[in-house]
Amino acid sequence: MSTAYRGRFAPSPTGDLHLGSAAAALVAWCAAREAGGTFVVRIEDLDRPRLVAGAEERQLADLRWLGLDWDEGPDKGGASGPYRQSERAAAYAAALADLRTRGLVYPCDCSRREIAALVSAPHPGEDGPRYPGTCRASEPTRTWRRQPAWRFRVESGVTVVEDKLLGRFEQDVEARVGDFVVIRADAVPAYQLAVVVDDLAMRISEVVRGADLLDSTPRQILLARALDGTVPRHAHLPLVLAADGTRLAKREGGATIAELRAAGLSAPQLVGQLAAMLGLVTVEEGRAGLLPFELLGAGRLDRLAGQREVRWRPGQGIAD
C-alpha cells in the first residue's frame, strides 16, 4: 500500500467530542490506516470566543479512549506543525501576502446588514447573502469606514467536486456566494483560508469530514488552486442526526462521548454502535462490540457511498 496517503481529523475545541465528530474521526482513521498512510490531528481553535477551557484535552482523551491514535498532532509534534491553528498565524499571513501580490484579494468594509440590504435573495445560505461585489473595484487608497476584511475574487464558472462518497457536486461559487472573506475585519483568518493553508502545508491527500461542509468545498478548491497547491480528494460522510431527524447538537443530552462513557458504555460498544449506524457492519456485529482495527478491510468504507444522513438512537446506534 502507498504511504503517500495523509489524512486528518480537525476538531474545534468548543465543547466535548460529540457523536458526529467521533464518527468522522473513526472513518478518517480507518481510511488512513487502510491506506497504510499517516493520520494527523489538527486543532482548529481560531474562533476564540467559542473555545471551552479544557475541551482540547478532553477531545484528545476521548479519541484515545475510542482506540484511535495519530502520527502527528499537537501532543506529538511532526514535520508539518504546529498543529493548532492559533499557532499558525505566520502561515496565514504569508498566504494573504501571496494572494495580495497577485491581485486575487481586495479589502472590503461592508457589514452583513449592508450586504443584506443590497440583495434580494429572501433565503440566504448559512454564510449569509451572496456578496454583490460592492468593494471589488474600490480604489486601494480610499478611506475605510471601518477596519476592512479581505475578500477573494471569484470568477464566474462551475467548480466541480468529485466526492469519493457523494459523487459529482457542482457549484458556481460566484453565483452562489460571490467574493468571499478570507481574512475577517478583526484580522482573524476565515475558516476557508485557514483550512486550505493547513491542508496544503500538512500535505493532506484526502479530506474525510461531514456532508455539512460539502457546500464550502468549491471555495476551498478555488483557494488551493490560487495558492498553487494540490487539491486533496474529498469524502463527505453522512450527517449524524438525532432519532427524530433533527441535528445532533453538542448540547443535547447523551450526544457526547463523555456522557456515553459516564452512562457505562464501553469503547468497543460505542465503536460497534457507530459502525452499525454508519452501515459499516451489521446490527449484530455492532452490538457485539468492535475495536477500530476490526473495521479495516473488507471494503467496508465503500458502504458509505451515497448516504446523506444516518440517525443515532440512544442505546442502539443503529441506522434505519
Domain tally: 2
As a whole number of angstroms, the C-alpha radius of gyration is: 20 Å
Number of helices: 10
Number of strands: 11
Q: What gross morphology would you assign?
A: elongated
Task: Report the top-level CATH class of the largest domain.
Answer: Alpha Beta
Helix content: 25-40%
Order of helices and strands: EHEHHEHEEEHEHEHEEHHHE
- Secondary structural class: alpha/beta
- The CATH homologous superfamily name of the largest domain equals HUPs
CATH architecture of the largest domain: 3-Layer(aba) Sandwich
| Widest beta sheet: strand line-up | 3-4-7
Low-confidence stretches: none
Q: Predict the CATH topology of the largest domain.
A: Rossmann fold
Report how far the terminal alpha carbons are from each other.
34 Å
Write up what this structure looks like:
With 320 residues, the chain is α/β, with parallel strands linked by helices. It has two domains: 6-84 and 238-312, HUPs (Rossmann fold, 3-Layer(aba) Sandwich); 88-236, HUPs (Rossmann fold). Helix content is 30%, strand content 16%. It has ten helices and eleven strands. The protein has helices at 19-34, 55-66, 89-101, 112-118, 173-176, 191-201, 217-226, 257-262, 267-278, 283-288; strands at 6-9, 38-41, 105-108, 149-152, 158-163, 167-172, 180-183, 206-210, 233-237, 239-242, 309-312. The strands form five sheets. Strands 3-4-7 form a three-stranded antiparallel beta sheet. α1 (19-34) packs across α9 (267-278). The longest helix is centred in the N-terminal third of the chain and has 16 residues, at 19-34. The radius of gyration is 20 Å and the shape is elongated. The model has no long low-confidence stretch (mean pLDDT 91).
